[in-house]
Amino acid sequence: MAVVRAIAWHLRVGGVWRALPAGMPPWRTVYGWLRRWQGLGLFEQMMRDLARLR
After folding, report:
1. So what's the pLDDT on residue 9?
2. What stretches in the chain show pLDDT beneath 70?
3. pLDDT value, residue 50
4. How far apart are the first and last CA of the chain?
5. What are the CB-based long-range contacts (under 8 Å, 24+) for 22-31?
6. What is the pTM of this model?
7. CA 34 to chain centroid
8. What PANTHER family does its record include (predicted)?
9. Is the dihedral of CA 40, 7, 15, 51 positive or negative?
10. What is the DSSP string of 1-54?
11. Distances in Å between the alpha carbon of 28 and those of 45, 50, 51?
12. Predicted local confidence at residue 54, as pLDDT
């Protein structure tokens, strides 16, 4: 859940990955998970599912 929260923060605020605030997982961990999920098509599916909930 912390990785998802960090990705959401990054998407909302923008900027560089290294700027993740204290208390979030290391930026390389967050970025690595995002890249894996993108490669598998899971991130796009999560975004579609979230859009349907609105």
Report:
1. 95
2. none
3. 87
4. 20
5. 29/3, 30/3, 30/6
6. 0.83
7. 6
8. PHP DOMAIN PROTEIN, TRANSPOSASE
9. positive
10. -HHHHHHHHHHHH-S-GGGPPTTSPPHHHHHHHHHHHHHHTHHHHHHHHHHHH-
11. 22, 25, 27
12. 78
- Contacts of residue 27, defined as CB under 8 A and 6 or more positions apart, other chains included, come to 17, 18, 19, 20
Vertex 28 angle, CA 11 and 12, to 5°:
10
Task: Determine the pLDDT at residue 44.
Answer: 92
7-32 per-residue burial string, b: 16 or more CB within 10 A, e: under 16 = beebeeeeeeeeebeeebbeeeebbe
| Residue the block writes with tokens 């349907």 | 52
C-alpha distances in Å from residue 13, one per residue of 8, 20, 50: 9, 10, 19
